[in-house]
Structure prediction request, 497 residues.
Amino acid sequence: MLNRRRFLVAGGAVALLGQGRARAVGADDATLRATLDGLGRADPQVKLERLAIFSPARLSPPAALDLLSVRSGLRVDAELIRCFPFSRPGKGVYAVSVVGGAWRDAVPDVARIDADTAAILNDAGAGVVLPRALLDRTVRAVRGAAAGASGAVRVALDRQAMVLDGLRGQSGILPGVGRLSDGGAYFALLVDRQTGLRCDPATLHAQFVEQWHRIRSRADVVLSRIGLRHGAVGDRIMAVFREARWQYSDDDAGRDRAVAEMNRWLDRARWRIPVLFGEVPPWCLDVSARRMSAPDEAARRPGYRVVAGPGRSGVYYVDLADIRRRPCWTLPGVVHHELLPGHMIQLPMEDLANPHPLRIEYAPGFAEGWAIYAEQLAVADGAMEGDERALLGHLHWLLFRIGRGIADTGIHVRGWSVETALAMLREVQGEPAYFAAIAADVDRICLEPGMRAAEALNWLTLADRSARARDRIAFHRALLDHGRRRLDQLPMEGGRP
Prediction:
C-alpha cells in the first residue's frame, strides 16, 4: 500500500503536470484531432495531404506526437500500397486464415464472406496464397463453419472453401513472405509500419541471434551456479521446471500462495519506482496481482489486466489454471513485466496523454517493448539480487521473447520451414512459455509477419537508448509523459524529447 506522504507528493506532482499540460495545449489540437477522426478509409497519400497543414510547433506535446506518428505510419502505408498492391496495411497478409476472416464471426454475414472470397482471388493473382499446411487447415475450418450454418451463409462458406481448396496448386511449403516477389522489402516495410524504423531484415535477424547468444550465456552461468553444469541450456531449463520443490500445489492454497508471493515482489518493486522514474501518478503504484474468478480459472482464461487510473486500482489477474507449469521462480519476472515497472507504469501514464487511436495503431509494439525493457531494468536495479532462480525465470522470459523475434525473421527473411522454426524455438527456450505453446506461436508468426520482430526491436532499441542516455530518469520521463511513440520519435541521448 502507499504511505500517505508518498501519495500526497505524487499527487502534487501529477497536479503540476496537469497544469503544465493545460498551458501547453496547442492552438490546433482540437482541429488536428477532428481531422484524424475524419481520415476514414481514404488513400494514405490523400490522408497525408490533409495533415500537411499542421505544424508540430503549434501543437501540445501529445498532439505533436499524434501528428508525427501518424504521418510516419501513413508514409509506410503509401509505400506498401504503391510497391505491393495486394497490401491491406494493418489488416494482415491473408484475407482469410485459421485465425482471421468473416467465417469466424459469431453471426457470419454473407456480404463480408463474399468480400473475403473476392480478396482471396485477388491476392492469388499477385501470388499471395496461404502456405500449404495453413491453407489445408483453413479449408477444414471454413468447411466446418459451413456445416454448422444454413441458407445463404452456408452457400457462401462452401464457395469460399472451394476457392481456397482450388489454390493448393499455387500454395508452397515454405510459410514466409520471403517467397513473394521482393518479399524481403515487404517484410522490412511491415516492421517499419509497426516500429518507425526501416531495418535491413538480414541484419535484424543477426541482431536477434546475437542477443540470444548473450542471454543464453547469462542463463548458462546461472544454471551452473545452481548446480546444473552439463547439457544444452534449453535442456537444463526444462530440468529446473520439473523440480517439484519449487512448484505450487494444484489447489486453492497453492494459487493463493502464488498470488501472495507475487504481491510481496510487487511491494519491493513499488518503492524503487521514484529512483527509476521520479514521481509518477499515485494510481500507478496502487496495483496488485489477484486470482481470477473461479469460472475464469475453470475456463482457462489468459491473464489480463485492469489498468490503474484516478479512483481505480490497477490489477493483473494472473492465469494459474495450470499452476504446476508455473514454478515460484517464474513469477517475479511476470510481476515486473505486467505490473511494476512494466505495463502499470506505461499504460496509466499513456492514458493521461490520451493518444489518438491512430497513434496507437502505428506504434503497436511499443507497450510490449516497454514492458520487456522495464522487466530488464528492474533486474539491473537489483530486484532479483541473491535469488538465482528468480533471475533464471527472468532470463527464460527473455529467451522466449528473443526467440519469437528470431523465428519471425527466420521464417520470413531466411526462408525457414515450420519444422526449422519449431526446432529453433525449442533450442532457444527449452521449456515453452506458460501462455504460448511453441507450435501455436509458430502459426501466429507465419500469419503475422513482422509483429514479433517489431516487439523485440522496440525492446532492444529502448534498452540501447537508455544505456546511452546521460540522465536515465529524464529519458524515462520523455518516453512516458506523452504516451507511446514510434521509434523514429524517441528522445535523444541526453533524455530530451
Remarks:
- The first strand starts at residue 287 and ends at 291.
- The radius of gyration is 24 Å.
- Residues 228 and 236 are 7 Å apart (CA to CA).
